[in-house]
Specification:
Largest sheet of chain B: 2 strands, antiparallel
Helix content of chain C: 55-70%
Number of strands of chain C: 0
Shape of chain B: flat
CATH class of chain C: Mainly Alpha
CATH architecture of chain C: Orthogonal Bundle
Order of helices and strands of chain C: HHH
Number of helices of chain C: 3
Oligomer: heterotrimer
Strand content of chain B: under 5%
Chains: A mainly alpha (524), B mainly alpha (113), C mainly alpha (114)
Largest interface: A-B, 71 and 49 residues
Structural class of chain C: mainly alpha
Radius of gyration of chain C: 19 Å
Strand content of chain C: under 5%
Low-confidence stretches of chain C: none
Shape of chain C: elongated
Strand order of the largest sheet of chain B: 1-2
Distance between the termini of chain B: 52 Å
Number of domains of chain C: 1
Mean pLDDT of chain B: 84
């Protein structure tokens, strides 16, 4: 009975559990801090478990359509509605499930880590309210099949993450970072609302599948597409709209930064979902594809070159996050640019997209790991300034090992997971345009160079007298990092398994627009 | 090789297990070379101190090369680039919003026209 | 011409909102510009959803069973609520920044750069 209830309502529960847990958290915290920790950890564990169940179900049984308030959860079009899905529909296809998997893994590790790392914060109960709210919003963003619903969740995620970025005021600097992040997000939100108005005015529908079916690509649709691309690219931190990223990522608490990476990727998911599923072939795919490629290449180059002279460890990593986002944009952009060309998409387009999508999960894992190790170092020595660090390899051995794993993965050194996805991108992009592949490789080398610098200045050298009392971080933090590091290695050693199991279905779900439409509108 | 681990990239393949085997063999060779090192030394004498041509050993803090000194040559060589790019990150909120609007306008011109 | 009046108002409000955001230096004024921009979008959605002679979907005593879908109004309400939350958070940020930096000038709030 209860099993059946859980299985029929999985997508709703995925959002409902963290949402409810978020707002009950301050009440539970009244009892005792230990209860609060158990509550937060327990609810996140349940969410992750539900996420994994949902992912398994979607990958074995196909797209999961869940309709809120319908007599049966699969009934997307009520009989008396005239063929319009008027209710809010959650459409969890393979691509959404892929993102849910990322959130389930990273969310669990990050919450586990933050139980120790954030215990010194003032009023942690509100901190966790925002944190769980962010997780709920990101899950909602990737699960929803409704345009307006997407807007609501993206606004919730902006609100929650702005609050989290500014949480440790740090003499106002964190607030400044939060302000910049939030203003850019708010502008993006307004763009999205404009898009919703335009599309609803033309097609009388908010459901993505319904709009996709009725799409005519008029002049207004072109403007809507431009606004969508700009808003979502700004939210995922593509150059030249990346300026908020280093501020927000470096000033946020480290556990939050790892989650912010995932939140940015949810925006990236939105970008891919709308261009591929909603517009598909009707859009001018060569132009938009090249726009995304150019944004990606700019992100890669400017991100990595800006990272090299940085002196703040988290700011440096934030610039690398921008540069890695460029790889995903490049891979999927190549797929988009050849979408209408049957031979090209079969020979290298799908592979490029597989590389880009695979890079999303790899990036979430290793970037999360790197931000967590940076947080562990800051937790122990209390400074972010690379010039004041040194010799920590003697006292923080496990953190050092995790850092090595993460930085080799981000630089694309075999056998870690970054190499597998980058190899897919290099080889397929080379067939598309050799010049782009060469840029991607050079960026990878610069990434390695920059992480050699970070590694040297944090861990190498003789033990410094000012850090004589530094010890290894507590066990929950090590566990959180350890899970991510293990997955980084596993994904690197069994790349084809991962690609076959989760990446290829996600790519197929993006390309196959009619499958998405018929899942909701039923064989139309 | 094994289908579980071989990643086919369309125009080639990549097998991490083969690579790991090669890595392990390299590590074994490295260990063998390392194990041939001198074992007879007297702990606590000058033999275990770093050799810097007889000069006195500097403080531990002074030995470590700090992050700001690394890649000085790289940033110096690309100064022309960095002089243009770093000032773009002005830190002023309105500039950031203006960039978003610029990109929107540019993409708009590309797509609509 | 008269029928297009709401859309002309939308364009004007958008232009005013964007120029306030870009030209004003005080943070509070910038937030006001953002609110003007939000109002422009809300007006746009409402104007798109307007049907001449439409019947409000209140089922008691409705003159005809054919009524207007209230979706745009619902969207607009949601967006107003989100706008309130956004403004509240932004004003809290402005207050904290004023307390910490001693200024609300957007060009003086630039500790983070490079």
């Amino acid at each position: 009975m209860i099993e059946e209830f859980i299985f029929t309502n999985l997508p709703a529960l995925m959002v409902a559990v963290p949402l409810l847990a978020a707002f009950v958290c301050p009440l539970v915290a009244q009892i005792s801090p230990a209860m609060r920790k158990m509550w937060v950890m327990g609810s996140m564990a349940i969410t992750s478990l539900l996420g994994l169940l949902l992912v398994m179900r979607v990958y074995t049984m196909g797209t999961f359509v869940y309709v809120f308030g319908a007599s049966t959860p699969g009934l997307s079009i009520p009989l008396d509605s005239g063929g319009i899905p008027i209710r809010i529909v959650f459409t969890v296809d393979a691509m959404s499930a892929f993102m849910d998997l990322i959130i389930a893994i990273v969310g669990f590790c990050v919450i586990l880590y933050s139980l120790s790392s954030d215990e010194r914060r003032t009023s942690p109960q509100y901190y966790y309210t925002l944190f769980l709210l962010l997780i709920a919003a990101v899950i909602g963003m990737v699960s929803t099949g409704d345009l307006f619903n997407f807007f609501v969740f993206i606004e919730i995620s902006s609100l929650a993450s702005a609050g989290l970025v500014a949480y440790s005021v740090e003499k106002g600097r964190a607030v400044e970072a939060g302000l910049k992040y939030f203003m850019v997000s708010a502008l993006g939100g307004i763009f999205l609302l404009f898009v919703i108005g335009i599309l609803y005015g033309q097609y009388d529908a908010l459901n993505i599948a319904m709009i996709a079916q009725r799409m005519q690509f008029t002049m207004l649709d072109k403007i809507a597409l431009v606004l969508l691309v700009a808003a979502l690219a700004a939210k995922c931190g593509a150059v030249p709209m990346h300026f908020w990223t280093p501020d927000a990522y470096s000033l946020a608490p480290s556990s939050v930064t790892a989650m912010l990476v995932v939140a940015s990727q949810a925006s990236l998911y939105g970008l891919f979902r709308f261009t591929f599923t909603m517009y598909h072939l009707s859009l001018n795919y060569v132009t938009i594809g090249w726009t995304i490629i150019v944004l990606g290449v700019l992100s890669m180059v400017i991100g990595v070159t800006m990272a090299i002279p940085q002196k703040d460890v988290k700011r440096l990593m934030a610039y690398h996050a921008i540069s890695q986002t460029g790889y995903m944009l490049l891979g999927v952009g190549v797929g988009l640019a050849v979408l209408g060309n049957e031979t090209a998409i079969n020979s290298f387009g799908t592979i490029a997209m597989e590389g880009g999508i695979f890079h999303i999960i790899n990036h979430a894992l290793y970037k999360g790991l790197l931000f967590l190790t940076a947080g562990a170092i800051i937790y122990r020595i209390g400074t972010r300034d690379l010039n004041r660090m040194g010799g920590l390899g003697h006292s923080m051995k496990y953190t050092m090992i995790f850092f090595i794993i993460g930085s080799l993965a981000i630089a694309g050194i075999p056998p870690f997971n970054g190499f597998a996805s980058k190899l897919l991108i290099y080889e397929s992009v080379y067939l598309f345009n050799p010049f782009l592949a060469i840029i991607a490789m050079v960026v990878s080398i610069l990434t390695l160079a920059s992480f050699v610098k970070v590694f040297h200045s944090i861990f190498m050298g003789p033990p410094l007298p000012e850090f004589a009392s530094v010890r290894e971080v507590p066990l929950p933090m090590l566990l959180g990092m350890g899970i991510l590091a293990t997955l980084v290695i596993l994904f690197g050693v069994f790349p084809q398994t991962v690609v076959n199991l989760i990446v290829a279905p996600a790519v197929h779900a993006l390309i196959d627009q009619s499958g998405y439409i018929s899942a909701i509108l039923g064989g139309a | 090789m094994n289908l579980m681990t071989t990643l086919s990239t369309g125009s080639g393949f990549w097998n991490p297990v083969l690579w790991l085997v090669a890595l392990i063999i390299t590590l074994i060779i490295a260990y063998l070379i390392w194990a041939r090192g001198e074992r007879q030394y007297k702990a606590g004498t000058e033999q275990v101190k770093p050799f810097i041509s007889g000069n006195p050993e500097p403080r531990k803090g002074a030995v470590h090369i700090r992050a700001g000194n690394l890649y000085w040559g790289f940033t110096d060589a690309l100064q022309g680039y960095y002089r243009r790019v770093i000032p773009l990150h002005t830190g002023i909120l309105t500039d950031y919003l203006l960039w978003v609007l610029w990109v929107t306008a540019l993409v708009c011109i590309l797509v609509v026209v | 011409m008269l029928w297009n009046l709401p859309f002309i108002a939308v364009v004007l409000l958008t232009a005013i909102g964007i120029s306030i955001i870009l030209l004003k230096k005080n943070l509070v004024k910038i937030f006001m510009g953002l609110n003007v921009l939000t109002s422009a979008v809300n007006l746009f959605i409402i104007a798109v959803g307007y049907r001449e002679g439409g019947i409000a979907p209140i089922f008691t005593n409705a003159p005809s069973p054919v009524m207007v879908m209230p979706t745009p109004q619902a969207l607009c309400l949601t967006s107003i609520v989100i706008g309130v939350a956004t403004t509240a958070v932004l004003l809290a940020f402005a207050m904290l920044l004023y307390r910490m930096y001693g200024t609300n000038d957007v060009e003086a709030i630039r500790e983070l750069r490079g």
